[in-house]
Amino acid sequence: MARGNSDSGSGFAAVFLLMLVIGFIVTYIWWIVGAAAVVGLFFVGRALVRQADERRELAAAREEELKLRADRHMRWTIAGDSRAVYGPEGASATDALSPPPALPGSDEDVDDDSVAVATMATTADGLATLVREKPPGWTWALFASVLVERRNNVLPRLRDSELGFSPSVGVPVYSGTELARILFGFVDEMLSTARQIDDFMAAPAFMATLNPGDEHGGDAEAIEHVANRLMDYHDRLLELSERCRRVTPSSYYGDVVAECARVINRLLQGYRDFIAELVDVVEALPKFLRHADGDIHLGSLALDLDIKGVSHLTKRLDAISR
Predict the structure, then answer these.
(1) Model-level pTM?
(2) Is residue 107 part of a domain?
(3) Residue 247 φ then ψ, to 5°
(4) Could you tell me which residues come within 8 angstroms of residue 173 by beta carbon, excluding any fewer than 6 positions away?
(5) Are both 190 and 271 inside the same structural domain?
(6) Would 257 be classed as within a structural domain?
(7) For labeling, which of 119, 209, 269, 296 is most exposed (least CB within 10 Å)?
(8) Is 157 in the same domain as 237?
């Protein structure tokens, strides 16, 4: 009997509470709807702001890319490079079929010994001559020569990185969680190195070293130091690529490691493109400077550290870490 009264009382209390809740909702329905609308608008607004920020970043990156392409095209045009007309691929095919002739009175027809202009140095004696004689453009020629020398020293390792080659003996990892932890560490180290490279090249001392202001001025030791430090970052990325490719997961996760290696290699590709373009500029210096009167503007060169693939990779790592 007591139990029946208890159940009846509990049921009444539940009904009473339900009526209170319904009454509260009916009384304050518009306040509740308004609050829900405000919360919804907040999240929608935040999403729109993020999209707008992403569009602005993409637009800024696109604008910078177009500027660099325009500067590159201008240099090709000034140098009389066929790539200015046919593009890189078209110029290679056209020159292979019909090499451009040297016109009378053109730069190719001028005796190189009559005009002292800096060129790439491929030997220790060449570097010493460059530093001793300091011809026009020697600072950039010295800088580029050191970059090329350092790059050539690791060319086989760079080819392995481009190929995604994995050594036969690696570091076995079977857990998705452990693999995600390791690869997240590689990604973080890569992003940290990329930021350090940006800060290094943005330092006022970097450009001041390469552009001393005086044609025959400049500190050769400082230039070599800057070039070697820039390539130290390059070698750090190369070592990171090798550590990534040494990770040996189960076959189920093999493509994740391969994607991580490709993302890291994109930064090395940025170095390769930067060095190649810098060498193009130095090799064209005789054409730029032989008839120049005063300063000439050759546009901008940029070391493009492409990290656009990081977002997709981190999403995959989040998925396998669960």
Answers:
(1) 0.73
(2) no
(3) -70, 125
(4) 179, 182, 247, 248, 249, 250, 253
(5) yes
(6) yes
(7) 296
(8) yes
